[in-house]
Amino acid sequence: MQVSDAPTALAWRESARHIEALGYSTLFMPDHFIDTRLAPMVALAIAAEATTTLRVGALVFDNDYKHPAILAKEMATIDLLSEGRAELGIGAGWMKVDYDALGLVYDSPGVRIARLEEALAVIKGCWADGPFSFSGTHYTITDYDSIPKPLQQPLPILIGGGGRKVLTLAGREGDIIGINPNLRAGELSSDQAADTVAEQTERKIGWIKEGAGDRFDDIELQIRYFFAAVTDDRRALAEAAAPAFGITADEALGSGVALLGTIDEICDTLVERRERWGVSYIVIGDDIADAFAPVVARLAGS
Description:
Elements: H1 9-21, E1 26-29, H2 40-50, E2 55-58, E3 61-62, H3 68-81, E4 86-91, H4 96-102, H5 109-127, E5 132-135, E6 140-144, E7 157-161, H6 164-173, E8 176-179, H7 198-212, E9 220-224, E10 227-230, H8 234-241, H9 249-253, E11 258-261, H10 263-277, E12 279-283, H11 289-299
Parallel strand pairs: 1-2, 2-4, 3-4, 4-7, 7-8, 8-9, 9-12, 10-11
Antiparallel strand pairs: 5-6
């Protein structure tokens, strides 16, 4: 479940508890500076404190916004204090308006992905036993022993991405991999829906397999469904929305961005995609948390 906002501390805690009570496994937050209210690291800590079983993480932290050793220490602290309920979601960064607003250099995708690769090495070094050193193009660590260590060994690392280079890296380094539209343009646009059709999703899974090699079966694949609704007429909804994104209704219904239908149809779709694509980690927005609760009740743990 992805949540980004709440007007008060009480509302935020109640939202986290409600999500937990509905049976969702994880509360995720975005990491952006434009059009979002709560800073994720602080809000995730409070959500973890307010609950007992709910896992917490970002979907995903932008690597360029924080030094990876600092991110590693903060997430290890949340994991320790939540008794092992943290997931570290991280990506190379993509939303250009955030960079522009803060005066950050918006490097090419290749540079940002190379920096992410080094950051993952730093994070894993921070979480390993004892001090470590690292010397790269973007980060240098000297005899550093990060404390505390995560309670989970290992603390799961979720890497999100949509292009070949980042998904191959994710296959090598991630425990959970979020399959996203390609966001190399630095902004959301209508043509990105075409990058989520079934053929493209299968291609992306192939890139993950390239990077993962023999460890592919140990990786959990994730999709965040941005177009999700419980409806008695999924085709009518798809036909109404798909043309605006340059795809057909059939492409929309089969894409890795849309999840539409009755509770039975949605459950069948998710089971079919788990069998076909291996995707077992599903994320939706909190605006439809109650409507999708029956799906969670039926499929959680299955």
